[in-house]
Amino acid sequence: MTNPCVYFSLFYVVLTLCIVFPPPEFKSAGLTLEAIFQKWLGSENEMFIQYHVKRTVMNLFLHSMVPFGYILGLEYVRAYTYANVDDQLLPTWSFSWKIYVAVATLIPLTVCILFFWWFPNLWKNHPIARKLSVYSNPGASWWTVASDINIEFRRVNKISIQSSSIVRVVATDNWVIKITPYTLDVAHQSDTALILSSADVHQWSPHINDNVQFVNIEVKPTRQNAKAFKIRLNALDLKDLQNRITRPITVLENVRVRRSLIDRFLETFADEVSKNPVFSTTEELESCIGCMQVTANVKLRKLCEDEIAHRDSCSNCYCRPMWCVDCMGRWFASRQEKEPSTWLSSKCSCPLCRARFCILDVSPVVQA
């Protein structure tokens, strides 16, 4: 029969990993430290910096208690297992186990001493406070910078990218922030260089014929005493980050960033549409009703040789030009099956009148 201590050890290791590196199932069920201690932490959206100061303190203390918690749990299991055994027959502590107990006890005590050094003057010595103080004006408190970040984080135009189970990247109007379990890395966009230094490709699964690319971006502030840091993102999230920040991301010559499947399809879709006969019109063209950013530039009309014989055949569309080629391409792709190799030869229905069309029926629009 297997010793119950072995079962407890395996359970404790798995539970610890799920708490330190919470999987999506734990997050959705609210079984994370942030969710459990939400009342004490407060609202991240209202007080972003204060929230993460408390969060980092909480994580550091609870994670430091993991070795000591294992001792308490294991001793409880041992006491329960040998409840009816004479004290002289109980297993004795080995020298290595005594060393482990001593170290496991010293770790949380050391962390508590560290907290006493951080706490005075409203966490003035906390690592987050020291990083923000680099950006404060002479004679001003780091809370001034914290207040500015709090205000920007409340705005709806920020982006938040979950780069891993424990790391998140936030970009506001003026700041790039990397959120890690024990601290925050911050950089003001006005004096920061972003360099995409490397990229690596990984396969999701041996049974799935698709790969995912991750890019590594070096964030290098030029401000004195500001420390550089790295962020690692899925290549599909790179465009979202580029759209939010004001600084360009420099890509090194030896790095090739893969574009998303939809971006590659849109380029091919636009190229194929440009080969079709143009549609000339004298009416004034309005903005695309899909994106409202560019003028409508495509018209659906039956040009292919598909005979009208069954319900899946192409048919005439009598809608006026109302879409741009990108929005029409996104609509076309969204109505296709999961196999991308068949998209160009497939058909779709008009977003308004539901007339069937293929890519040969999409004409570029020119004003006469």
Automatic annotation (TrEMBL):
Signal sequence segment: none
GO molecular function: ubiquitin protein ligase activity
GO biological process: protein ubiquitination
Keyword Transmembrane recorded: yes
Topological category with respect to the lipid bilayer: Multi-pass membrane protein
Keywords for the protein's UniProt record, in alphabetical order: Membrane, Transmembrane, Transmembrane helix
Membrane in keyword set: yes
A single Gene Ontology CC term: membrane
Main subcellular location of this protein, as a coarse class: membrane
InterPro entries xref list: TM129
Residue ranges of the TM segments: 6-23, 57-77, 97-119
Tree of life domain: Eukaryota
One Pfam short name: Tmpp129
Subcellular localization: Membrane
Similarity comment: family membership: Belongs to the TMEM129 family.
Protein name, UniProt field: E3 ubiquitin-protein ligase TM129
Organism: Megalurothrips usitatus
